[in-house]
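Q: My collaborator sent me two sequences in one message, no labels, and asked for predicted structures for both. Can we handle them in order? The first one she listed is below.
A: Yes, handling them in the order given. First sequence, followed by its structure tokens:
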Amino acid sequence: MASSWFTCKPLAVLLEEARGENRLRRVLGPVQLTSLGIGAVIGAGIFVTTGVTARQTAGPALMLSYVVAGLVCILAALCYAEFASMVPVAGSAYTYAYATLGELFAWIIGWDLILEYAVSSATVAAGWSGYFQNLLGAVGREVPKLMAGPVVTYDPALGRLVATGSLINLPALAIVVLVTAVLVVGIRESANLNTALVAIKLAAVLFVIGMFTGRRTTL
């Protein structure tokens, strides 16, 4: 039985499944695919976490960590490119593992991907909720405390989880439902929305860089 855990799915079977009636249609172009990659890189924390980490912890050395992370991303991209050329079917790391390492590793990687996307989606939704509530605060509005945040949060001073007085993070839930609805409509529509959001984020990043550069030039 243990030997079946390492049974690999033959490439011929994967290619045959990709040609079946349930195959995914290729509807994304180079602009949309590039936007998906940029959107994954420029996340919700880039406008907040970068400055806080540079000021309180890393200082200028933060830029070195970006260089190291960039090199690691390049190596990961090359690995994915090689796998995609060898196993040209949908399924990402799950399919690559199933074709090369076996069923057990594919099962582990599949669950890892589910957990990764679940945790990252929750983090991004919470970050968006914070931005949205700050925007409301700027115009004199606020979300009721019972619906404004997580039930518990980690307090570094106490070293444990503490209650926040909230029952649900309603803005975070709302954005998850909205994005889910867009994904259900279709991949093309969700990719177009992502492209528009990436353009806005890039404009914001370039604006901050331009303002900072102009300020240093003036000084």
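Q: And the one she listed second?
A: Here it is, processed independently of the first:
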Amino acid sequence: MQLAAANGGITTNAANLTLTGTAAKILDGANNALAGFNNNTGTFALSGGATLTTASSNFTNSGKVTIAKGTTLTVGGTGHSYSQTAGTTTVDGTLTDTGAAGISLTGGTIQGAGALKTNVSNGATVNVGDAGKAGLLSITGTYTQLSTGTMNVSIGGTTVGTQYSQLKITGTASLGGR
């Protein structure tokens, strides 16, 4: 998709926006219209191998973000973070923060059976696996569960990812939640 003329791009999504496929993009003139995308209050989804890197600032979600298997959302730039304040982020693909500021959950839920490639601070809810399903959620970094945080796992057998949930963390884990 291409916007008719350079208008500064899309910074906030309050609608339903889905990027599908490895070549999916939205252009603002000749530039990436989503380079400054930093606020989702609607529904945003990546599917079919789509990738998106934002570069201008922190990314805040209070709507619904879906990162399907085989897709990647990267919060780029130095010191930028992914902030979940409400709503749901489902990560069955990869959510990466190149600035190492991490993922901060203060409201809503992050769930899935994908990879979070950054440090995670949970003051809300993490579902290991998708809603009501077991899954393997990997964190490349540290996991800090604050006293306001909740972590939900599914247990129903002996097979990881299909019968019980597993949170795999490469760094340290600090559990201070309930």
